Amino acid sequence: MKLELHKVKINKLAWGDKTFARGGVLTVNKEELLSVLSGDERLAKVDVDFAMPGESVRILPVKDVVEPRFKMEGPGGIFPGMVSDVDTVGEGKTLVLSGAAVVTTGKIVRFQEGIIDMTGPGAEYTPYSGTCNVVVILENVEGVEKHDYETACRMAGLKTAAYLAEKCLGTAADQVETYETPCLKNAMAAHPGLPKVAYLYMLQSQGLLHDTYLYGVDVKKILPTFLNPTEVMDGAIVSGNCVSACDKNNTYSHQNNPVIHNMFRRHGKDFNFLGCIVTNENVTLADKKRSSSYSINLAKTLGVDGLLISEEGFGNPDADLIMNCWKAERAGIRTTLLTDEYAGQDGASQSLADSCPEGDACVTAGNANEVIVLPPMKKVIGVPEEANVIAGGWQGSLAADGSITVELQAILGSTSELGFTKLGAYTI
Amino acid sequence: MVKEIERAGLPVVHVCTIVPISLTVGANRIVPAVAIPYPLGDPSRTMSEEKEIRRHLVEKALKALQTEVSEQTVFTD
Amino acid sequence: MSYRIVHYINQFYAGIGGEEKADVAPEVREGVVGPGMALKAALGSEAEIVATVVCGDSYFASNIEKATAGILEMMKKYKPDAVIAGPAFNAGRYGTACGGVCEAVVKNLNIPAVSGMFPENPGVEMYKKSFYIVETPDSAAGMRAAVPAMAKLVLKLLRGEKIGTPAEEGYIERGIRKNKFYDKLAAERAVDMFTAKLKGEPFVTEYPMPVFDRVAPNPAVKDMKNAVIALVTSGGICPKGNPDHIEASSASKFGEYDITSVMDLTAEAYCTAHGGYDATYADQDADRVLPVDVLRDMEKEGVFKKLHNKFYTTVGNGTAVASAKKFATEIASRLKADGVTAVILTST
User: Fold this and answer.
1) What is the distance, to the nearest Å, from the Cα of residue A222 to the centroid of all Cα atoms in its chain?
2) In DSSP terms, which residues pair with A129 in a beta bridge?
3) What's the number of CA atoms in the CB half-sphere (13 Å) around residue C143?
4) Given this structure, which CATH class describes domain C3-169?
5) Residue C288 to residue B39, Cβ atoms within 8 A
6) Which of A88, A126, A411, C302 is the most exposed place for a label (fewest CB within 10 A)?
């Protein structure tokens, strides 16, 4: 499977009467975009705004971030099973508006949406302070059921991302990246002498508002399966999560999964990267046992020597992480874990809810309970009062002057367990 | 939490879904529950069936409290 | 202007006497006493020891609250910028006193405190999370090594400089996690570590897996018919509207709610404050998390004597173990005071 990512670099946004990209500027026809998003009876109102790096702008509560991508060539369409028909993706050519992002915000679905500050101390913690953000502001129809509202918000973000990139088809790429994973027969014969490895890609699937979709399938219903890394780049995995903002894997971070990129970087040099095993984090013990056993058996069947395992979320998913770890290690497969920590505001508590001695190689994206003060911003897109109720905030988080005191937990992507930030922790 | 209640001298039974976590953190009497969002219920059943499931789990919890244990024990059927 | 430091030592180092004088009450002396001389030299001109508080080890151990309060009052008069205690080396009671004093200083005076102890001193385990304890040899023969390290650390704290790792600064690991920005993305660090592990090269995990302590099980309930059963949950069940604003994640409190004459938790009256799971089902029927309906039935049938008239709730989601521990200790003491026999704790 071979995929070319045609990256058009975006460093500026502008309004215009036509949507197109030229010279690093993404011009957006607001009216046309709004018409693409119109007609959803679950949404009472849709609006669009911009937020640029360095501006004194705060966006909250943020539901998801999506990178604008569209298929130029090749079977299938972007976000299969969501925006496009269900067909295999990961081959051909895909246009990427690199540096641009679609951010969905609006009246909150539940407690778990996040904050993006475009400048100041909070900006250092979120990857999305560095992107040129097209912010889609959504307002639900009174009384719409929460799960339906989540679907409406999710679809609006994906549609906007697809629309923006589609309108830019034909723009010459600034950079073309090529990724290829051969079929297993060839992959197994390649790079003799190097250890074979795979990436065990854990996806949040706790319930209707804590879910991830694979080709449109709610992953709580899947058995762990094999996935080519290039399929992920074409939007095969989409976030439907309303869970703590710091470590829910946004659609953007799936599309740009830095674990996959770093595995490719060392592929053929230090190891032979065969691909991903995607698995879920369900709410019953039987599911957890089944999925971990199934994943590790898949890894054994592939004959891998090592598994890099990334978690999504925290708490009971720690039990999935730990089961995956010891089941692999006891099958002779060496593991490295990528997680984050909930060590308390003072950092003095245990960081994980579960543990096993086999987890001797663990990288963490930092302590999500650490408290940060976010100074007031000149402009707030969304609903600032939600700071008092989102996960990581508390009654009184929002001060009269507009500053917000919260745990890092409330900042979008701050302790990304796909390892999308440079944050980490150490013991004093 | 369960450990601190035990430490204070009260017999305690932990009714929870993710038994491995309970075992790791150190609960002594554990009764496995249904699922995280509904440990003592099952929305796919009728209300009266659900209540029966719940009754069964609570009976198991009371039985666990009346059973002498010397180490961590999971009370399955 | 130099920083003002108050030094805390025991009766032995103050030259009052050994074990036979260990019951002397706290007193304060202007300037340096005993090991304060060496400390003064190590601090140089940047900080000055303005006073020394002396207390007998036995006195402190048998009057902890009174002694701590008195010592704090004495210290406050000298407007210190920091407090140094000891070093206590491997002296157990002296170490615990230094720890108790320093913890109180950090908490109540909001200024830095530093002590020095041998790693096996019981004061280390008790107080290392509260403040910095410099690692020292086991006896006063190690004074020469201990004092400069303590002085260096206290000056760094006073200047507000970033404190390095235990190995860099010479203090005993406190077991506290601190965030920092690394040079590389966490994903790249993970793939680096993964590669090293595969090749059998050395690597250092960023988080050593925790080991949880154990508590011995309590004896079983012998007479269920006369038992009072209480309900506790980490599933966040609370009266509708969450009147105490229990946080959806990283809870800072627990709730205590009266259920006298409540036979069933209805959707009109109860919901969950928990932000970590799909709340739809608990909001529809909170008995799914907290089985009040069934327990009322069984109470009526005489299976046990009484369902306790209060239930306790918090949100487990993202809540630090230390907070949960604190809540549970308080809940347990209330339950015991109310004559509860046994507890059913439900988790989501």
Assistant:
1) 19
2) none
3) 11
4) alpha beta
5) yes
6) C302
